[in-house]
Amino acid sequence: GENVEQHPSTLSVQEGDSAVIKCTYSDSASNYFPWYKQELGKRPQLIIDIRSNVGEKKDQRIAVTLNKTAKHFSLHITETQPEDSAVYFCAASRKGSGGYNKLIFGAGTRLAVHP
Amino acid sequence: EAQVTQNPRYLITVTGKKLTVTCSQNMNHEYMSWYRQDPGLGLRQIYYSMNVEVTDKGDVPEGYKVSRKEKRNFPLILESPSPNQTSLYFCASSLWPNTEAFFGQGTRLTVV
Q1: What's the pLDDT tens digit per position in B87-109?
Q2: Chain A CB contacts of B100 below 8 Å
Q3: For A48-86, b where at least 16 C-beta lie within 10 A, e where not — what string?
Q4: Residues of chain B whose C-beta is under 8 A from some C-beta in A?
């Protein structure tokens, strides 16, 4: 079945630096790749997503890139701020046994942004 | 306000005592899921539902049951809880698969 591997597991940066989190997936049929942010004690929330017909997507300081050939996608956060500190999860879609898509999540990256 | 509501938020129970965690959404979403979150393992899907009376196993369904009798509700049932089901559980809903998932507040379950 689909495996999603996420690296690094922890990332520490100085405020203003960039942060990059990488994920790889195994199912070439995957076509939807969301990223979720989970602040301490809170629920995960979608921050950006990309579909397989697009190579890159940006939303202000956040961007996601997708390389379908290599089966990897990355989250880029520029000009990091302390409020970016959280756990970030990548995910990839996969067809379930019932024929409907479901999400497989990576293990998460704990990002700490130091002032 | 559009939301996904889970109850209870915290639950401590004993091995073997049946329990139900409720989940309700008010966004008329078709797709609902249950996940468990464990340290170092991310979010793992337990069950999902595409519509009323349509459910399917996720990646870790053993020991769990679900039902979808109404579109808005998707309860998670543990018939005979065991300590390895101690975890943080999230319900989520989305309009369709492969669209934004909205998560509930989470239920922290401890089985002793």
Answers
A1: 999 999 999 989 999 999 999 99
A2: 34, 46, 49
A3: bbbebeeeeeeeeebbbbbeeeebbbbbbbeebeeebbb
A4: 31, 33, 35, 40-45, 48, 50, 54, 56-59, 90, 97-98, 100-101, 103-106
